[in-house]
Design a protein that fits this description.
- The chain has about 500 residues and is an alpha+beta fold.
- Helix content is about 30%, strand content about 25%.
- The strands form six sheets. The chain has a seven-stranded antiparallel beta sheet with strand order 3-2-4-1-10-9-11. A six-stranded antiparallel beta sheet has the order 5-6-7-8-12-13, covered by helices on one side. A four-stranded parallel beta sheet has the order 17-20-21-22, sandwiched between helices.
- The two termini are about 25 Å apart.
């Protein structure tokens, strides 16, 4: 999903919202597998608006059929597309790049013809050892077509002798490190797997006799599938004509589910770890109100991910809730803004303020996070211009001070405003009367799950998996693709592990 260059090292201008990881969906054993996958991707559109794709197969010796393109699901797949997407098994993907180029070459699913048959994969996450694996595979003759780390998974599975024994594909996958929720389609079976830490969600569902895998349960709701269970961290679910079975090929790791899925990424109607997202967000709002109460006339959410936290905040303090910001739903959730002028324009295009609602009032604005500060500052300006008497910002998660290496495009820490300013400095910079963040303890309480379930690295700096940037930095300095990179003595030793 992401480039093999880690987010900290990219030089492109990052979005002022955190970009989503990606979304995956797969169907096995249904005559309309591609159409169901399409609807599943439609439900997961919020997880990626850059590109979309589906690979479908009928279980015969015939070729995989693939359709993918840049843009939204509805734009990539027109009605006539499904006339050529016939088969009983399919996998699909919606993408945001956390690093690397936005191009059709990086659109997923990725597929290949190997000596063992056809394979296709769709990946949500970010491999932290992708550069090393890519360099090693390149030296063995692998030819890479894209800059996505997802292609590394495909090449690992396609290595000579990789499929010589029943368990060897799983042995190849043991070499992966980082965040990966992946669906893999062969000619006769479908695999779904999560990394041992379980950074990214993946759920299993049933539709009649067909099996469904999806990043979020909202995809099951749309196609009428029944949620069965979450795929466990470190689990590989194998589905074929014999039924379904599980393998646990990875070494055990501490569970580290991304808590920001609850804060921002997931749809409110999805259930993650058997907890409804909207209810968790409402409890975050209540926790925030108890931690940072304020006397005000109205509570205004920043749509969409701030809505439920604002409802909880308003109910806890007995302050009227008023959706004064109106979102243009025909604008994507995030942009790449090359200039400050375009950034400011896009903020106003995305959200418009009903001035009459806030004029002369003390306003509390509830948002899910502040990353660069660009949008928060613009919203405060909008409220001041509309005549708001006071503007108080309340954020339903702790300050983001650290980069993410597990599939979220939190930028270089130097671009994270909370990393560069104290809370008092940030309040003055934004022009607010006050600012208050939810703390880690309150965020955890809102999930009603133990802290050990979660990755909190972007807030605390405590990374569940060690991050070694040495090779990536060397590659950038040499300005070479990993397949061309000749390993040093130090990197060569990694290949023997």
């Amino acid at each position: 999903m992401a480039s093999y260059f880690l987010p900290l090292l990219i030089s492109s201008d990052p979005s002022y919202f955190p970009s989503h990881e990606c979304g995956v969906c797969a169907v096995y054993g249904h005559p309309d597998a591609a159409l169901l996958t399409y609807y599943g991707l439609f439900a997961l559109q919020h997880r990626g608006q850059e590109s979309a794709g589906i690979v479908v197969h009928d279980g015969s010796k015939g070729p995989f059929t693939i359709k993918k393109g840049m843009g939204l699901v509805a734009n990539v797949f027109e009605d006539q597309s499904f006339e050529h997407l016939k088969g009983t098994q399919a996998i699909g993907h919606v993408r945001y790049s956390t690093a690397g180029s936005s191009s059709i070459l990086n659109a997923q699913p990725l597929s290949a013809e190997t000596s063992y048959g056809q394979l296709a994969i769709a990946h949500n996450g970010n491999l932290i050892n992708a550069a090393r694996l890519r360099a090693e595979l390149g030296m063995k003759g692998s030819i890479f077509q894209a800059t996505s780390d997802s292609e590394v998974i495909l090449h690992l599975l396609a290595q000579p002798n990789a499929l010589a024994q029943e368990q060897s594909p799983l042995a190849a996958l043991r070499r992966l490190e980082g965040a990966f929720s992946v669906v893999i389609m062969g000619e006769k079976e479908l695999l779904g797997m999560r990394d041992p830490c379980g950074f990214r969600p993946l759920s299993l569902g049933k539709l009649g006799d067909a099996w469904v895998l999806a990043s979020e349960t909202c995809a099951f709701d749309l196609i009428g599938a029944t949620f069965i269970r979450d795929v466990e961290p470190g689990e590989v679910v194998i589905i074929n004509e014999s039924g379904i079975r599980s393998e646990f090929p990875f070494a055990s790791q501490k569970e580290a589910f991304c808590i920001f899925e609850y804060v921002y990424f997931a749809r409110p109607d999805s259930n993650l770890l058997q907890k409804n997202v909207s209810q968790v967000r409402m409890r975050m709002g209540r926790e925030l109100a108890r931690l940072h109460p304020v006397e005000a006339d109205i509570v205004v959410p920043v749509p969409d991910s701030g809505i439920y936290a604002a409802l909880g905040f308003a109910e806890e303090l007995g302050i009227p809730y008023d959706p004064a910001f109106v979102r243009n739903h025909y604008i994507g959730r995030t942009f790449i803004q090359p200039t400050q002028l375009v950034r400011d324009f896009n903020v106003r295009v995305k959200l418009n303020l009903i001035g009459e609602t806030v004029r002369g009032k003390r306003v509390v604005v509830i948002d899910d996070s502040i990353v660069r500060g660009t949008t928060a500052k613009t919203r405060v300006v909008n409220l001041r211009e509309a005549g708001a008497k006071e503007v108080h910002l309340r954020i339903s998660c702790p300050p983001h001070r650290n980069a993410c290496y597990y599939g979220i495009d939190f930028p270089d820490p130097e671009k994270l405003v909370a990393n560069q300013m104290t809370q008092e400095e940030l309040c003055a910079y934004l022009g607010a009367d006050s600012i208050g963040y939810l703390d880690v303890a309150g965020m955890i309480r809102a999930t009603q799950l133990p802290e050990h379930h979660f990755c909190l690295a972007c807030f605390t700096g405590n990374y569940p998996l060690p991050i070694d940037l040495t090779l990536e930095k060397q590659m950038l300095e040499r300005n070479q693709e990993p397949s061309q990179f000749l390993p040093t003595e130090n990197t060569a030793s990694l290949f023997k592990k």
